[in-house]
Amino acid sequence: MSRAGAPLSLSRKLYDEVIAHCQRESPKEACGILAGKDELIEQVYPMTNVDASPIGYSMDPREQLRLEKTMRQAGQSLLGIYHSHTASEAYPSSVDVSLAISPEISYVLVSLKDRTHPAICSYRIDGPTITREDVQVQG
Questions:
Q1: Is this prediction's pTM over 0.90?
Q2: Which residue blocks in the chain are alpha helix, DSSP H?
Q3: To the nearest 5 percent, what fractions of the chain are helix, strand and coil?
Q4: What radius of gyration, in Å, describes the C-alpha atoms of the chain?
Q5: DSSP sequence for 59-76
Q6: Which one of 5, 26, 32, 111 is at 20 to 30 Å from 123 when CA atoms are compared?
């Protein structure tokens, strides 16, 4: 059930939730989980950046465990991880690439370099290979 080759698709509401979370956390990087069923993103889960840093993020492990339980109970799967870049483009850094956990999920980056026009880009990361995927906003 891989979306490989398919665009990342989410509703306008969820898209706006991701942008709003990233803007709220600025100048620190924001991070979160995109979850859903049948490869359809249906929920945004903002997470705590325990690094509280403008140049990196780490999700709270206890919060991740609680979220895994919540997602399992809802029949949801991890479909993507998002985080913001507060002063650079929406492209995976070398650290982002080294932390990628699976080529099956989307890595969504939100650039706040231009705060009035945030940019969202999504990628698949497979080892050193970075492949951009289209983002479709529904509605």
A1: yes
A2: 12-25, 61-73, 94-99
A3: 25, 40, 40
A4: 14
A5: B-HHHHHHHHHHHHHTT-
A6: 26
- For 27-63, give one letter per residue: b (16+ CB within 10 A) or e: ebbbbbbbbbeeeebebbbbbbbeeeebebbebeeee
Number of domains in the chain: 1
Residue numbers of the domain that contains 109: 8-138
**pLDDT tens for each residue of 14-38:** 999 999 999 999 999 999 999 998 7
Within-domain flag for 2: no
How many Cα atoms within 13 Å fall on the side-chain side of residue 132?
Answer: 8
3 within domain boundaries: no
